[in-house]
Write a structure and sequence with these properties.
By secondary structure, this protein is α+β, with helices and mostly antiparallel strands. It contains 7 helices and 4 strands. The chain folds into 2 domains: 6-80, Serine Threonine Protein Phosphatase 5, Tetratricopeptide repeat; 89-183, Alpha-Beta Plaits.
């Protein structure tokens, strides 16, 4: 009914390959083209199919694709594992309804007094945005906030909120003034 349905393409391809039907490759290729998150497992299924069929040259081709995708994922993870003042940021491009949902969720955390949302410019998989949620939080003037308190707030947000995609939570403090200037 919907030829561009990613999961339908993937599952149909998987079923057909389990039945030793080569037509499954087309459906898996469609799924991988529509959404890169299916690339690793889709290539693995096709690789195993060709191995079972005794087509070593084709199997090696998909093994190479698996290796290249794993290298890409390593670069993606490295690029998205931190935020620094050397990074570039841009507007987030979320819809008003997504912003309203995020704002309502943040309202449940009274320690948060300001929140900024931007998107980090990324080199690898730019179609999969990385959002930076930069927060200023309330602390008593007589208390010395430490990294443990900031990390605890980040952990609470990460486990208690639904984000629109990959999101890095950053607590704005004296240690990251340059990042704060760029984000604001």
């Amino acid at each position: 009914m919907n030829p561009d349905h990613v999961c339908a393409n993937y599952l149909l391809g998987e079923i057909l390959l389990k039945q030793e039907n080569i037509a499954g490759i087309t459906f898996l290729e469609n799924a991988m083209a529509l959404d890169s998150k299916f690339s690793l497992s889709g290539n693995e299924l096709i690789h195993l199919f060709h191995q079972r069929q005794g087509r070593q040259e084709e199997a090696n081709h998909y093994l190479n694709r698996i290796e290249q995708h794993q290298i890409l994922l390593t670069k993606v993870n490295q690029e998205r594992s931190s935020v620094s003042d050397r990074d570039n940021f841009m507007l987030h491009h979320l819809s008003d309804s997504e912003i309203v949902k995020l704002t309502k969720q943040l309202a449940h955390y009274p320690k948060i007094i300001e929140a900024y949302l931007v998107q980090k410019e990324v080199e690898y998989l730019p179609d999969k945005p990385l959002y930076i949620l930069a927060l200023r939080h309330r602390s008593a003037w007589w208390k010395i906030e430490n990294n443990y308190c900031a990390q605890k707030l980040c952990d609470q947000l990460a486990s208690g909120m639904a984000f629109p995609g990959g999101t890095y939570i950053l607590i704005l403090d004296d240690l990251n003034k340059k990042i704060e200037e760029k984000i604001c």
